[in-house]
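Q: What structure does this chain adopt?
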Amino acid sequence: MADANIEILKKETYLKALENSVGSRLFNSLFVRYKHTGEIKDILNNCELSCAFFTSNILLMFGVLEKPFATVRGLKASIDQNGKWKKISLGEVEKGDVVFWEKKKHEDGTETAHVGFMINKEEAVSTSTKSKMVARHSAMNRAIDSIYRYSWE
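A:
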């Protein structure tokens, strides 16, 4: 798309992509083959564990991450180690900030973390296990652990 007369606006396109992702099932599955058994498995379990894969692939698409992640822990560690990301407070939230929610405890004793994108101070976009797609929802449905902003400069 090399054209001397235009400039691609990455941040603006990124923000629009977040809006346009709502309703997508594109990030519901990640198939792997276990080398020791040959077993093939969807490790995201048809959207049950897909939030980090969705979030990291959007960030990868816009060049702000080096690789996608299947886990919230891996994604958060990558953001923490990258000097272009700054931890911010809830009061500073802008559209496009990455939000990590606190772990949720389940009846079976397991815990799951969750990650997505802030759309405004009250709403976020992330994968929904209920609807099995990317959804826009209240950011306050779950306690927030941390929020990060990327420096586009």
